[in-house]
Amino acid sequence: MRSRNRQYLVSVDHLRAYAALLVLLCHGTQMISPYLREIPNSAPHGWLYADNPLATLVLEGHTGVTLFMVLSGFIFTIGTLGKDIRYGRFLGNRVLRIFPLYMALIILGIGAHKQGANLLAVLQSLAGLGNLPGSLDLGAVSRMWWAIAVELQFYLLFPLLSRLLTKHGPLALFKLLAAITVIRTLVWASAAGGINVNSMLYYSLAGRIDQFLLGMVAAWFFVHHRRRFQGPLKVGISTALATGAIWVFNQTHSFHEGHATRLLWVDVEGTLWALVVLTYVATVSSAGLVSRGIAKVGEMSFSVYLLHYMVVTMFISHRWWIELTGRPVMDAFITTTAAVLPITLAAAVVTFNGIERPFLRWRRAYLLTDQPPPTAPSPAPKVALVSPR
Prior knowledge:
The chain is an all-alpha fold. The protein is built from 15 helices and no strands.
């Protein structure tokens, strides 16, 4: 389901798959492990911490949401930089991308959770305000919908931001980032500690807008200076920097304890993922069997993201888990990778092909110019993901 508005980049679908898997593995491991060790995650020591930075990518896998946000800014900017956008068509394409599966979940979720639904809640969720109090609360069905609201709010702003970037370059977005950071800090400081930092930064556009903007800046550098970011070594360095920063975030207990450093973390996390996206997309263009398989998961990442929480909750409610090692965290991870993941992927295949794909075919070109979508300056050196026969 390739867009008519931009060049297809298989590496972008790789990163979509990676982001979705990070979130799935995080929720499965963090949610199932307390039942194996009888310590709820809300307890002082309930959140999981690891000395191994690679394990931290799973335990803090919510960072995959940040990767999704950065990718959104990056992907749209690749296709629109230097061009004007038909605003109505752009939003229409976004509706076709998100609302078919979203509406199906709303209708079926209300059928099972009528107590969490009323007309105003339905209208609020449909209006892209599902991350605010009063929206639909349908248990596990709606737990991931806050991110849909944030994405929809960004889509409303994107054509304006794209024009700003086209006319004035990345410096304009950096100035906007600085202004947002100052205002956000003043809002936090003026509340004298009365603001829930997670609610302010994690679940709303107030904290996520930085990551969209950083993705847009990464796209500008990709279009204008792609060669400077090519190379497996640069991919490795950017990935190591992101992994190390997330490990420090985990070791300082920053997710639950709401340190003031969270005000900076949204930009540090976004910048590092933007660098990963930039170097990876500039470098990797393999079309081998493994590459296509990963890309298929990325293509279905929206279904994976929306469905996985229900699958994890199903396993918990039925007490279905695999106890092989006697180590609660490891057994939770094994259960997630060996059972939750394949069931989620199987369900995603059905929902993607039955609900998402038919509507994706209706998307139209939304660029005002008659020029084709921009092509990359020159082919990137291919990094083989499978050995040639």
